[in-house]
Write a structure and sequence with these properties.
Two copies of one chain form a homodimer. Chain A has about 350 residues and is of the alpha/beta class. Chain A has helices spanning about 35-45, 45-55, 145-160, 175-185, 200-205, 220-230, 235-240, 260-270, 290-295, 310-320, 340-345; strands at about 1-5, 10-15, 25-35, 75-80, 95, 100-105, 105-110, 125, 130-135, 165-170, 190-195, 210-215, 250-255, 275-280, 285-290, 300, 330-335, 355. Helix content of chain A is about 30%, strand content about 25%. In chain A, α1 (about 35-45) packs across α2 (about 45-55), α3 (about 145-160) crosses α4 and α3 (about 145-160) crosses α10 (about 310-320). The interface of A and B includes residues 58, 285, 288, 301 and 303 of A.
Chain lengths: ~350, ~350
């Protein structure tokens, strides 16, 4: 099969052996697969990505010296049911899945695994037990957005909100947009979103942000404080209290950037008593001044990925139109275009989510 | 009055004007006042202490160029009720208080405030509203331990435990010992405590730690994992699962050191799903690798000080003997001995809590 292979720092198109489904696996033909910010990071900072992934445990088994095929946000079509499957999904069925597959009870990651090609290849060996059929009437390509949108669902679930919160989302790439969607699904208002990119701020508004802030022009934290001030109260009084007392409404902030320095800026800007959910995946060392978090008694909740229930629920939300993902798809490329797409995604103004279509 | 004054980097004994109680204030005579680790830090790293305190807000109004009298863990005797007081506490009454005083409704910190001398001086102007009388039969000096012990009460309260947790306390100075006491009061078992100092490990055991670990000889995190493994299960299996799955019993870890590097070590060592409560007050920049927290979905809760209720409850616990603080008092000095006591406290093997007795 053809695949966009990450090989010693470069993405090249090459031919690999077709995967052979093992016990309980289904061979699928990849229809579309999104490019994730973590793919960009793994390609650009391979050594640190591999080092941190290895030292922190988990299922990223990628190394710097072996070929790897990225791609963990996919929709695919069943080609053949392998040995020991129940045949629940006839050939032609459109499916998605969490980016994991199984051999027996052993779980294998898909996307950063040199032993199993991800969604930037023509075929994948998925676990029948983990497949979710794409509901009738849903645009199949939208199922490739389930994975990134589930990240937002999980982050907001783990925030354990009471319902009265004022929310600030820092960073409006796909992760931030997913968080905005999940907040609005729970009725959290207002949701304030901040990004330096006008295009991303426009997307944030389309996903349901009540207000968008350009951090180059105004402080997102001042906007949060203003929103957390009850009607009829003087925000300047709260600006003063800010130093020692929480504002009246609880505040929750989402870190959706994942680069060094953002967390410290949020610790400095957040109101006392704030909850900060860290969704952006920073794989480099970072510098913080803990006393800011201590003086404000801040709660930092680090989250990753999603549960199977959150993933399935997100598919239902998208299928029912409760999360409108169409505006997020800003580009489509074949395998030959993956290398350029990685370069294009480094400029956030131009792109949000690019889908790789291996059969294009 | 006489006071141990921190002046341009040195502690000197000098004579200051006696405080004059303002409206609602009571003049008290300091009986004893503990030396806190934050006092040592403020003396040794004055510029960074002042800078971080200022930038992060709060009530530390100390500057590098003005004299300041430290001391915020005190027991005192009422000398005179000032104007506008209700006279609730006749002269001679032994009292303690949170280290704050009031003029009208304005709150002033005591301990890092160049305008109000703290407990390393002979007299203080406290707010009548905030005074708590020392219960009959209580060793008065034990009331000087209410403040540091309340820090542990608050930290454990903010940990919002369910009761099934296995706890690990990193650092067995006064803060760690206070956390151990508060955990045991809630019936949390086992409590594992780690410190490089044999004397501090012995104190941890006296405060109720079920197990103590010397990090130079064994991993406190391995001990935590072992304790979180249910009976009849194989800890080596959990050691393997460690990379991706939480152990069976929830784990809570308390950072009670407050120096750079400890937080990262805890992020690396903690099991997946762990809650880490940061009680140690680190006032320097720190380096973390956020991906460890992300991969394990760790919750970090930064806490500071205590509520008035927690402070009052801690006084009751000590008075009733539910927290035995006598072993923590390892030294007593007069004002002339404060300078040497600061030096001695830098060697944790020798000392835990030194009480300053201004009238000694």
């Amino acid at each position: 099969m053809r695949a966009a292979v990450f090989r010693r720092g470069e993405i090249v198109v090459d031919t690999l052996p077709d995967p052979v489904p093992a016990e309980g696996q289904v061979l699928v033909r990849t229809r579309a697969c999104g490019i994730c910010g973590s793919d960009l990071h793994a390609a650009r900072f391979t050594d640190s990505f591999v080092d941190v992934a290895r030292r922190s445990g988990g299922r990223y088994t990628m190394t710097a010296d072996r070929d790897v095929v990225f791609g963990h946000e996919f929709v695919a079509e069943v080609v053949a049911n392998g040995p020991g499957t129940a045949g629940r999904f006839p050939p032609g069925t459109l499916v998605t899945s969490m980016p994991l597959t199984l051999t027996g009870t052993t779980v294998h990651g898909i996307g950063y695994n040199p032993d199993i090609a991800g969604g930037f290849a023509e075929y994948m060996p998925l676990a029948e037990r983990m497949l979710l059929p794409v509901p009738d009437g849903m645009d199949p390509d939208h199922a490739a957005l389930v994975e990134p949108m589930a990240v937002g669902e999980h982050a907001v679930e783990e925030a354990r909100l009471g319902g009265e919160e004022v929310a600030l989302v820092i960073g409006c790439g796909p992760v931030g947009l997913a968080v905005i969607a999940a907040l609005r699904l729970r009725g959290i208002r207002p949701v304030i979103a901040a990004d330096f990119s006008p295009a991303r701020r426009a997307l944030a508004a389309r996903m349901g942000a009540d207000a968008v802030v350009d951090p180059a022009a105004a402080s997102p934290y001042a906007a949060l404080l203003e929103a957390a001030t009850p009607p009829g109260h003087d925000p300047s009084r709260y600006a003063q209290l800010f130093r020692t007392s929480p504002p009246r409404r609880p505040t929750v902030l989402f870190e959706c950037v994942g680069v060094p320095g953002v967390l410290q800026a949020m610790l400095e800007g957040a109101p006392p008593g704030a909850r900060i959910v860290v969704v952006g995946v920073c794989m480099e060392p970072d510098r913080i001044e803990p006393f800011f978090a201590i003086a404000k008694q801040i709660e930092l909740r680090f989250v990753l990925a999603y549960t199977p229930e959150e993933f399935a629920r997100t598919l239902e939300h998208i299928a029912a139109g409760r999360i409108a993902v169409a505006p997020l798809i800003t580009g489509r490329v074949g395998l030959d275009g993956v290398r350029q797409a990685f370069a294009d995604l480094a400029r956030p103004e131009a792109q949000a989510k690019i889908l790789v279509e291996p059969w294009r």
